[in-house]
Structures are given as structure tokens and as C-alpha cells.
Automatic annotation (TrEMBL):
It comes from Labedella gwakjiensis. This is HNH endonuclease. Residues 262-271 have a biased composition (Low complexity). SMART domains: HNHc (SM00507). Residues 251-282, 442-467 are annotated as: Disordered. CDD domains: HNHc.
Amino acid sequence: MTTHGAALQDAVAHATEVLTAPVAGLVPGRLSTSEWMMMVRDVERLGRLVDAARVALAGDAEQRTGGPVDALAALRFASAVDAVATLTGLADRDAKRRIRLGATLNAGLSLTGAETRSVYPSVARAVSAGNLGVDAATILTDALEGVSPRIDPVVIAEAEEALVHLAEGSPDHPPLRADLVRGQAHLFVEAIDPDGVRPREEVARRKRRFTIGPDTHDGLIPVHGLLTLEIGAGLKRLIDAHVRKVTFTDGPRQLDDTTRPVEAAESVESVESVDDRTPAQRRHDTLADIVSAASRVKDAPELAGAAPAIIVTVTQTVLDSGRGVGSIDGVDTPISVDAIEKMTDSRGIQTVTMNPDRRILSLGSVQRCFTSSQRRAITARDGGCVIPGCTTPAGWCEVHHVIPWRAGGETHTDNGVLLCWGHHQNIDRGPWRLTMSDGIPHVRGPGHPDRTHTTKTRTGPPLTRTG
Ligand SMILES: [Zn+2]
């Protein structure tokens, strides 16, 4: 054993022996408050001292796998991380983090055995003195590493020294908490590297991505992605604006109701109490509204010469009986005829008749869907999703057949109302009942025990009429 190793081992053995009994016998409740405060502070400092040794030792793992002799591979460790994780019982992630900080702070040994300086000597000194915790040290070195390729090393060294001084405290000021160290580090970095924001945005723009699918075995399509700040913030605002808690009025609308925003009206019960969707489900439904609105835009991009239609294959028997499933082109999970009918109502259907060997026999015209002029008329009447309290604007809504098409309901303005995607999905099961009376939509539901005329339109005179 080297003398360096022997001295260290002695010290560790001694400290362990001295500490084991008092730590095992510690009853914090028996301490006076001033003793407790002192212990919290002093034990933390002791912990930081031990951390300094842990970080320094872990940081050396890389050195032992690099170089001409891979000492760790010879001991059957797969990597530096594997060695540290196995020896300490740490998770890989934590071992990696500890190695990274140690490797950054450790002084090196040159080929002649002379010590070379640490890259961040001030941070290294404060850590090994037990004055700076591992968290704060990681924050500081990460912040400085981020700007070091572009900034003069002298400036970096000055910033490092000033930050460490702030973070570890001095006789004049107390040490900074780790979360405040982050803020200070950002301020310094922005001061010495004002152009840094631009490269960061460049990197963010390169990393932007959005992926959809494939569908999972439980019939859902996962989405993943990283949005740029402006797109992410824009999407969040758009969705939040419609997901927020809304209230609705009690009883039939009064004459002046149409001039008042729905939210400002007297509320008796929040939609929350009848809306059993979670906030995440409501965000999904708002996204559905946005998707449905975007697919209706006149100059939407075309796929193979046609508007981006969804191709659904379903047999006539299933459509006629209203029972069974079909399939969406490009998706493995089958879709119920119920869902197909809702898509049909708002997007239209073009029937392709094929014989059993899939030769096309006939091609029907688009039918069953409300035309754009019908939709405009319905929009003028309903002004948005007709469910009380729902704020989904008309442009995002689907047109719903109040009497289903299969039950003989016509594709006529007197049989169509605007519903957002979420309410459209739930209208057959949910608490709301829709009826048409002389071409005017009425709802019955929570807070509306009687059939209540419903409209969100703010353009014309109120059409109060109960039937
Ligand atoms: Zn709605």
C-alpha cells in the first residue's frame, strides 16, 4: 500500500469508528433547538467533506479505464460507470453524475507524476474544504463549461472565483443556498457571454422534433417531442385558454345574457362537477378541436391530390347495423362504428364499393356531411359549442346530428348543432340531452333541469324561446 493510501485509509477507519456509535444512538428529539440547529449545520459540513472524497474518487474512474492499461476492465468492470455503481451501490445515473463532477474538479497527474491544476481550482478548493456542496459545485461547473469554448479563460477564472466566493459565504455574508447559486451563475454567464442566448436557441431549433405513433396495443397513438419555446408557449396558451375552469348560468337565458360573457354570469355549479374529464383529458380534447379546425381550412395541404382525408374501411353491413368495427388506414387498432359515424358527421363520407377481391365497383359522392353553407348558418345560430359553460369557439367545433343519421335524422340545419370534440364524443353518454325545437337547439342537464334554449352567438338579437 502507498503511504498516501495508508494515511487515507487510517483516517477513514478512525472517523467511521468514532462516528458509528453516536450516529446509531442519535435521538434528534432530545436535542435543544440550538443544539439541533448546530448539528444540522455541522453534520452537513461533515457530509460535504465526505462528499468531496466521494466525488474525487469517482472522478478518477475515467483515468483508470483510459490510458494504455485499462485497470477496471482487468477487474471485469464494463466501464467507469459500472465500476463506481457496483462498488458504491449507486444508480448508473448518479454514478455518472459523480464521475463527471469529479473528473472536472480533480487535479491531474502528468506523465512525470507532477500534479496538474484542476480546471476549476476555486470550485475544487471549496468542495474539498467542505464549504461547497456537490449540488452547488455541479451547477457552477456546468454553467462555466457551457460558456468556456467562447470566453477568454481569464474571464472564466474571474467569474469562477467570484461565484465560489458568493456561494461558500464569507465572514461578511452567509453561504448561498444551491437554488440561489443557479440564479447567480446564470447572471454571471449572461454578463460574460451576452451572445450565448443565440447559440442556445440555435441548438434548441436543431433539437426541435415531434413524432406521432405508431399506435399502441391499447389503441392509442403516442406523441413525443420537443417544441421550440415560442411554439410550446403558443400551444400551451391556446390549450390552457380553453381548458380553464368555466362556469355556466342556471335556468333559461335571460334577454341580457347574450351581451354578458358566460364566465361573468352567476354560477351555481362549476362544469367540473359534471365534467369528469381530467385536465390532461381536456387538453387532449382541445387539441382534437384544433386538429379538426385545421383540417377544415380551405387551403390545407393536399395528400396525393386530395384534401387530407382519413381512409376508413368498413363493411356496409356494419354501417347499416351500427354494430362492429372498421379500420383506419395506417393504424392497426380497429375503430368502432360509433366513432366512424362521428367522423362521418363532421368530415363526410365517400363510399367506395368493392367486390370481394377489392376491385372497385363504384365510387359514391361525398354525402351525409353538413355542407359549408349549412355549417355557416349553424355557426351563426349557435356561435360555438352549445353545451353551457363550454368555451370552444365555433371554428373548432364539429356539427352533430341531433337525431342520428341512421335513425332517420336529416343532414339539415334544423338537425345540426355545434359541439366541441370532447362533448361530441360524450353526448350519447354524458349528462347533457340535446333536442331541437322549431330548429332551435335546447339542452337539458346539470343546472338546466328544463329544456333550455342554448346559443353562444353574440351577433344577433337573443333568440330566447323555450319549448
Ligand atoms: Zn364543448
